[in-house]
Amino acid sequence: MFITTKLWNTHHNPSLVETELKDSLKSLRTDYVDLCLIHWPIALQDQDMSGKTILPLNADGKGIPAEHAIEDVWKAMKECLKAGLTRNIGLSNFNKKQVDRIMKICTIKPSNMQVEVSPYFSNNQILDHCRQLGMTLTAYAPLGAPNRPWRESEEPNVFEEQVLKDIATAKGKTIAQVILRFHIQRGLVVIPKSITASRIKENIQIFDFTLTNDEMSKIAGINKNLRVFKNSLMANHKEYPFNEPF
Fold first, then answer.
1. What is the crossing angle of helices 162-171 and 175-185, to 10°?
2. Which residues fall in the annotated binding site?
3. At what angle do helices 213-220 and 175-185 cross, to 10 degrees?
4. What is the pLDDT of residues 66-116, one digit of tens each?
5. What is the signed CA dihedral for 1, 139, 244, 16, rounded to 10 degrees?
6. 3-state DSSP helix/strand/coil percent for the chain, to nearest 5?
7. Cβ density class 55-91: b for 16+ within 10 Å, e for less
8. Which DSSP letter does residue 9 get?
9. Which residues are tagged with the site Lowers pKa of active site Tyr (predicted)?
10. Of 147, 149, 221, 208, which is closest to residue 180 (Cα–Cα)?
11. Label partner for 205 (CA 20 to 30 A): which of 63, 143, 179, 228?
12. Binding-site sequence positions for substrate
């Protein structure tokens, strides 16, 4: 087991970082986690650990910003590492400029970057940048989150892609298994979400086949630069990461 947790936006106050991690450890019933990530570079209005207010909103329905520099948040994360509460610390949803700001001030480098990656969203530029900095890379929503509640009716569905159907048939695998294998062969960690035991088991059964270079190229060719986790409620924040090209 490799246990990862994240620091939420309402606990970016450096005085709350360790408190939230300890609260997570209590919920997880463990003394430490293997990895703790800053979930977003976006700091929102400070909240307690009750969970009553997950996303504080203003009258316009936008997140209420807080002034906590990502550099200061990182320094507080480092203290959690030094205290033995986590074995690794990393980033999630940061853009290149934000990553570089952390690299400029850090004495302990981020060990992992977690970002959205799917066949429709290759996200190559930030992945390549973080790989060059020595980070491991994690793809969330690796199947494109086709069942997300906010999916637009006209959006394409990766499970209807003929290229994936053909490869899955040829390999005797499901489309989901082919996609996960595609990510693995790109050098990514993948974290598909499921609460169904049979699908969890299926998602692990991807190490008994490989994709050819031609198959990898065909899957890469369906990229549409389609980001689906845009976090638009926080787009008013100065640290909103997706205003940059990558």
1. 90
2. 39
3. 100
4. 999 999 999 999 999 999 999 999 999 999 999 999 999 999 999 999 999
5. -20
6. 40, 15, 50
7. bbeeeeebbbbbebebebbbbbbeebbeeebbebbbb
8. G
9. 6
10. 208
11. 228
12. 39
The pLDDT mean for the chain works out to 96
The yes or no reply on domain 4-161+222-243 and CATH 3.40.640.10 is: no
156 Cβ neighbours under 8 A, 6+ residues apart: 120, 224, 226
Q: Cβ(1)–Cβ(29) under 8 Å?
A: no
Cα distance between the two ends of the chain: 32
pLDDT 10s digits, 26-48:
999 999 999 999 999 999 999 99
Which residues, in sequence order, are CB contacts of 196 under 8 Å at separation 6+?
A: none
Closest among 119, 101, 239, 245 to 190, alpha carbons compared:
119
